[in-house]
Amino acid sequence: MSSIIIFTSIILLISPISISSPLAATDGGDDDNLTVYEAIESYGFPKGILPIGVTGYELDKSTGGFKAFFNGTCSFSLEGTYDLKYKSTISGIISKGRLTNLTGVSVKVFFFWLNIVEVYTSEEELGFSVGIASAGFPIDNFEMCPQCGCGMDCNGVGVSEGKQVRKNRAERFVSSF
User: Fold this and answer.
1) Are residues 145 and 52 in contact, defined by beta-carbon separation less than 8 angstroms?
2) Is residue 116 within 8 Å of residue 101, measured between CB atoms?
3) What's the confidence (pLDDT) of residue 156?
4) 139 secondary structure, DSSP code
5) What are phi and psi of 127, to 5 degrees?
6) Which residues pair with 110 in a beta bridge?
7) Rounded to 5°, angle at Cα 41 from 36 and 45
8) What are phi and psi of 114, to 5 degrees?
């Protein structure tokens, strides 16, 4: 019996144990206490690419693996132009100015729901790709976070931690060909 306890103790001592909270980054760096919004801003993205209500996130800084969690699905419309839907978990690979292999976010274009697979920044623009088509928007349109259910216009007042915000200017998705 004592040899089993000793063996188990040795295994536990030499095994790398990684316990992480979904509310913080998972690699033990200095900025483990960043909110998800601060974390994405550290990669050059505006916080408004995520709606209000993220309950936690995981970030592996060595691989760029990123996950954000919501209490359920989150849907909203931006000025009646685009309908967006976030699943309860979204994930992708994040690097400076680029979020690739994105899953869990879709946009309604005409009558079809298309998965947004990549988000990227270039100068003063934020681009979204659905594979064969992409669209760019002024990056300052994403200074404020939308809210599930009502986007940027909840009860006639824009939302961002209780502050009124201006409306976004939207452009239609265009072919990348």
Assistant:
1) yes
2) no
3) 55
4) G
5) -110, 145
6) none
7) 110
8) -120, 140
pLDDT for position 140:
87
CB 45 within 8 A of CB 118: no
> In angstroms, rounded to a whole number, what is the distance separating the alpha carbons of residues 133 and 48?
22
CATH 3.30.2020 fits 46-175, yes or no: no
Question: Residue 19, Cβ neighbours under 10 Å: how many?
Answer: 5
Residue 10's pLDDT is 27
For residue 127, give the nearest of 10, 52, 49 by alpha carbon: 49
Task: Compute φ and ψ for 62, nearest 5 degrees.
Answer: -75, -30
* Distance between CA atoms of residues 102 and 92, nearest Å: 4
Query: What per-residue confidence (pLDDT) applies to 99?
Result: 97
Nearest alpha-carbon partner for 70 in 87, 84, 85, 58 = 87
* Residue 14 per-residue DSSP state: H
- Counting every residue, how long is the chain? 177
HSE-CB at 112 with a 13 A cutoff on CA atoms is: 5
CA–CA gap between residue 172 and residue 40 (Å, rounded): 25
Distance CA 124, CA 138 (A): 6
The DSSP bridge pattern shows strands 82-95 and 65-69 to be antiparallel
List of residues 6+ apart from 39 with CB closer than 8 A:
25, 31, 57, 59
pLDDT under 70 in the chain at which residues? 1-32, 79, 156-177
